[in-house]
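On clarity, I found the account of how folds are encoded harder to follow than it need be. Since the whole study asks how a given chain folds, the encoding of that fold should be made plain. The format is easy to grasp once an entry is in front of the reader. For illustration, here is how one protein appears when written out as sequence plus structure tokens.
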Amino acid sequence: MKPLYRERLKRLRSSMAGKKLGAFVVTDLKNIRYLTGFTGSSAYAIVSSDKAFFLTDPRYTAQSREEVKGFRVKIFKKALDTVAEILGGIKAAAVGFESGSVSFDNYSKLAKALKGKAKLKASAGLVSALRSVKDQFEIEKITEAAKLLDKGFIHALKVVKPGAIEREAAFSIETFWKKRGAEGLAFDTIIASGERGALPHGKASEKRIKKGELVVIDMGALLNGYNSDETRTFVTGRPTAKQKEVYQVVRDAQAAAIESIRPGVKASAVDLAARSVIGKAGYGKYFGHGTGHGVGLDIHESPGLGPTSIDVLEEGMVITVEPGIYIPGWGGVRIEDMALVTKNGAKLLTSTNRDLVIL
């Protein structure tokens, strides 16, 4: 087993001990990839204090033996029967499971199979908590994805212009990434021009971009299993006084949030730093989402940077910082960057120009 995966398994076992779990069943495929390196679409992992099993179906026999090291690989015909058989051999009093990715039907079947042998305990978030702090391998992969994303924005400046159709521009950008090694999109590309900019998740549409409009572009590339996420807002022609004002408020809010980032700071405090700037400028009611989120194997991970978040920033976390103002009937502005939490503060991983660029 590579030291990378050995350390992750060690951390999981420590968390299991803290929860008094004799065994833990992993069903979320991203969590399984994190623990084992497996990139397929069908798998279970079972971890105890001294054993680790990887289960998959016959389609992945060769792939699992190539990718998975340090786990005993078992090929199943009926997944839950094999899971129950292994857990019976481990003889754990309490077995944790990922309640967020186990159907009620499968839970019922597993509970029935283990009745009288072990107690099932919902343990959602056990692996995702570990994933919130990135190791050096992950930081390198996320940084590579962020660099590819920046290149996508350079291409966007060539295709997003007055007269262009949002959806066609998005397709051009997505093709650009694919030709440069991206596995796919982190999420559906958002290109929202004019009044559509007031939609925080305004996916690219058939709308034709007009002169004098703000254009919100939120994109993410998936590279080597890791996601990237960045937003810029451009203007198609000389900006109006209000467009410049709203843009500057959002930029100041993002700068305040980035300045507040450091280990030990509450995620809600970072959100407040951005929200206070927007509120003082009189646009508070037009900022309705959280200031950011973690990014990694999933596009949205822990921590969450919102008003009610209980998360605390730690060195090694990778987060987005993305305040915005969305005014119905007028348009919107969002500026988003990815930041690595270091012992000295925030290190930005995305670097596209944050000035108001005229297309």
Summary: The CA atoms of residues 23 and 48 lie 4 Å apart. The longest strand covers residues 214-219. The chain has two domains: 3-131, 136-348.
